[in-house]
Design goal:
Elements lengths: L2 E7 L16 H14 L5 E4 L5 E6 L48 E5 L3 H13 L1 H7 L2 H4 L2 E14 L1 E8 L10 E9 L9 E8 L7 H4 L5 E2 L9 E2 L9 E9 L6 E5 L2 E6 L11 E12 L21 E9 L6 E3 L5 E4 L6 E2 L3 E4 L3 E7 L6
Antiparallel strand pairs: 1-8, 1-10, 2-3, 3-4, 5-14, 5-17, 6-11, 6-15, 7-8, 7-14, 9-13, 11-12, 12-13, 15-16, 15-20, 18-20, 19-20
The structure holds 2-acetamido-2-deoxy-beta-D-glucopyranose (NAG) (3 copies).
One 2-acetamido-2-deoxy-beta-D-glucopyranose binds next to loops.
Length: 371
Amino acid sequence: MDIKAITSVLFLLIIVDVDGAWSISKEEDMELEKQLKILNKPAIKTIRTDSGQIFDCVDIHKQPSLDHPLLKNHKVQVTSYVIYQLILHRPLKGKGLSGFGVGCPIGTVPIRRVEKEDLIRAKAFSKLHTKAYAENCHPLADGPIHLSAKLAANDKQIYGVASILNVYKPTLLSPDQVSGSMIYLSTGFGDDSKSVVSVGWAVNNSKTTGCYDILCPGFVQQSHEFALGRTFPGSNYNGSQIDIKVLVSKDSKSGDWYLRVNGASVGYWPKELFRGAFEVAKEVNWGGEIFSPRQPCPPMGSGHFESEGIGGACYISGMRYQTAAGGYFEDIDPELQALVDSPHCYNVSMPSYLSEITGYTFLFGGPGGQC
Ligand SMILES: *[C@@H]1O[C@H](CO)[C@@H](O)[C@H](O)[C@H]1NC(C)=O
Ligand SMILES: *[C@@H]1O[C@H](CO)[C@@H](O)[C@H](O)[C@H]1NC(C)=O
Ligand SMILES: *[C@@H]1O[C@H](CO)[C@@H](O)[C@H](O)[C@H]1NC(C)=O
């Protein structure tokens, strides 16, 4: 129960506990109470998971993402974009929402309860990284150390990506580090404002929380079962493996970008969110990323290099994309670019074609250290 699924526009999470080095005044405390009242919507039902997380079942039309200023006039799409285009002899096999479901009633969506502690951390963090936080909720990119080992498809027109993410639980060295795996789609460089959609998992060491949950609203949930930010277990090194199947695709009619996990529809990023518009992804990355305020850096993936193969190193498989709007998901062109920031800490293999069912798979990660 240490891993967390995250998705967000403009990237993901993270909020940091700065070694408890903050204090808040009475005024600040009152301000936080006020914020909590705004953030936490009235619950139709409240669910506590086995691991102690609290989820409120909130009316789908009153979910907190709608507080986003760009979604003022947004009408929630309650039915999902139906993706017929998966190649039929290779359907995305999934275990449904098992592991993510919390059992909210139909007409509601599960929203993780924001606690005062989350806000205090967010505040402490934003004092350190005001720029990153305020401007784009992308503290990963603005931290002192941000390293990745990934594969990139450039100079393509991509309307959707489907892949299977192997999930691990890299051991962090301090609560303010982050390590995860993700798929990242963006409009690429060259535009005034870059639009990004990113999906993946990252370690929850109980001192981090999703910026999605608190400060980056915008993803509209449709599923009454799937709970963003729900913790779930990771794979065992050389043992049982845990995968999640992720699909992001643009609905060419509405212009919204839809997310499916394990074959089930989760929700969408409304087109209004993308100030610079998001017609097509010209930059797509798959791989691992770490963030650390200092050396040594945490492990990435399973903590082992790609040379250990499946079971030893973390993988992403079933790599497919849509190169036409609303078109078929086809195997990727394996001519991808490897981008590795610190090869003695983390590295990445090129994709290899394993089978018709699995398609292309690559491995990434490493132990970290002095990077
Ligand atoms: C992380 O996991 C711990 C233990 O399972 C849980 O208590 C905590 O609420 C989780 N944190 C978040 C942000 O989900
Ligand atoms: C994991 O499996 C690989 C390949 O079978 C083996 O070389 C390695 O020693 C194993 N490692 C551990 C810690 O069991
Ligand atoms: C990754 O690093 C390991 C350990 O140094 C090495 O054995 C392997 O060949 C490297 N792989 C690539 C693709 O560089």
